[in-house]
Amino acid sequence: MKVETIAAVQGDHNLHNYEEVSSDFNWADVEKEFSWSKTGKINMAYETIDRHAESDRKNKVALYYQDQKRHESYTFYEMKRMTNRAANLLKAHSDLEKGDRFFIFMPRSPELYFAMFGALKMGLIVGPLFEAFMEGAIYDRLDDSEAKAIITTPELLPRIPLDRLPNLKTVFLVGENVEEDGKIVDFKKHLHTCSDRFEIEWLDKEDGLVLHYTSGSTGKPKGVLHAQYAMVQQYQTAKWVLDLKEQDVYWCTADPGWVTGTAYGVFAPWLTGTTTVIIGGRFSPDAWYKAIEDFGVTVWYSAPTAFRMLMGAGDALVKEYDLSTLRHVLSVGEPLNPEVVRWGVQVFNKRIHDTWWMTETGAQTICNYPSMDIRPGSMGKPVPGIKVAIVDDRGNELPPNQMGNLAIEKGWPSMMRQIWNNPAKYESYFMNDKWYVSGDSAYMDEDGYFWFQGRVDDVIMTSGERVGPFEVESKLLEHPAVAEAGVIGKPDPVRGEVIKAFVALNEGFEPSEELIQDIQQFVKKGLAAHAAPKEIEFKDKLPKTRSGKIMRRVLKAWELDLPTGDLSTMED
Ligand code: 6R9
């Protein structure tokens, strides 16, 4: 079978020759890019902000911030001063010390980033939360991590069960006319009176950086801890994968509650001194295209759900904006359907570069690079210097084209360092002391491209055939009526499992028996008879995480009348 390819982008890319660089690459060389390689002492806030403020980039814009009410910009020098102020504020109004957990629970705003980097300057471990979390989700995370302080807004404060969290000593509130007491501190009031000079807390490479809680299919969310050293891979992938250069204006649409919003929202771009755009408020296609035009965004990192929603908003809308500055577009979070890649080429005249990684990997791991041909539907190839393989359940490497566990050889720079309070869980990720097993199933083709098939527990076995739900979902999306699709295996006495699809329809389509048959035929013809959903159920919306992942386990629980498990990461 001929594979669809979209040829490499011509031009001068940071990663010019994938094969050559991969064959001879040493992460230790990247350390030389940082000042700590000389001193041995490290701090993410120094490398992302102060270092640039003390260089030719002093007056370069670090942050453009925009929402419905505010439109602000801060240079690297201004960021240095504001984060110093925030650090002094946190220090003066709490007993926070190096290594303590400091949580962030507020909508995006410049203050969020002042506080986050101020906390990093103090050597605190930062735990970002999604603003939509409700009391139970907040409690689980603050309790498990024994958080000592949090920054939030008056609107969100009632969701924090202060009386049940004895370790939580200080609450910084970002609002107007805040009433202070022993626990509550008015962040904005003190910010401008605090000194803009601060002595950074110098750390060891292995000291903590961020604590991101992620939910598995069962049990409580787990705290994934990353070390300062993660910056090595975040920096290098900002170069190779984001392809960032001095003049770029970069926009990552992810919320900081999701690992993408920290690692690639701010760390990676600022490690390279790149101007970064942060847009607050809710998603809207108009506002997003407008942001690209307003800021002249050149590099844009988003997620498949967002691209699919933009696709749904119609191509006519795209023409109303000047998107000509865009030169590089990327995606992460879930499989990027070939249909979406084709759409990108058609409407933006840009390839959308899929990237695969996880909270646990701390940085991009399998990617499509501008200098490499894309095979739509493939996640691409491992980041140079990282060994990725498909292994069986015993940890043996499988040959090309065989579906198995997507695994990474232990020891990549940004690998998680701990599951908070749960060493046994941490160990359970590793096999034969060699492989980190991701929980995703995939295969590698004979040319080294990796193809995602689903979470291991989502893979469907029907009449002895192994079917990756993603393939079926992608085909479903190509049908003109289908806006969103989620596919699960439903237990069946004869076939083991049968394929059931949940489908949300595009505007102008109504559920009907005919439409069901038409969609079934479409998958049968386009993919394979055994891959066609035996059942199709129409839904107005599908359950998704806040980062846009279709929650197949929730579909399955609904279908089988089982408990849905932890839903704190599900969007409203
Ligand atoms: C960064 C992030 C990780 C899980 C991962 C996989 C899915 C992420 C993907 C992808 C297919 C891609 N995932 N990127 N699946 N293609 N390009 O998303 O972290 O929220 O921890 O999720 O997301 O299933 O295992 P996280």
Could you give a short description of this structure?
The chain has 572 residues and is of the alpha/beta class. It is built from 18 helices and 27 strands.
Describe the protein in words.
The protein is α/β, with parallel strands linked by helices and 572 residues long. Among the domains are: 152 residues, 3-Layer(aba) Sandwich (Rossmann fold); 102 residues, 2-Layer Sandwich (GMP Synthetase, Chain A, domain 3), CATH 3.30.300.30. The chain is built from 18 helices and 27 strands. A hairpin with a 7-residue loop joins β8 and β9. α4 packs parallel to α10 and α5 crosses α6. It starts with 17 loop residues before the first helix and ends in a 12-residue tail after the last helix. The chain binds ligand 6R9.
Broad structural category:
alpha/beta
Low-confidence runs of at least 5 consecutive residues:
none
Question: Termini separation (Å)?
Answer: 42 Å
Q: Please provide the count of β strands.
A: 27
> What's the tally of helices?
18
Mean pLDDT metric: 94
What fold name goes in the CATH topology slot of the domain at 76-227?
Answer: Rossmann fold
CATH class of the domain at 76-227: Alpha Beta
Largest sheet: 9 strands, mixed
CA-atom Rg in angstroms: 23 Å
Shape from CA axes?
Answer: globular
CATH architecture of the domain at 76-227: 3-Layer(aba) Sandwich
| Ions, cofactors and other bound molecules | ligand 6R9
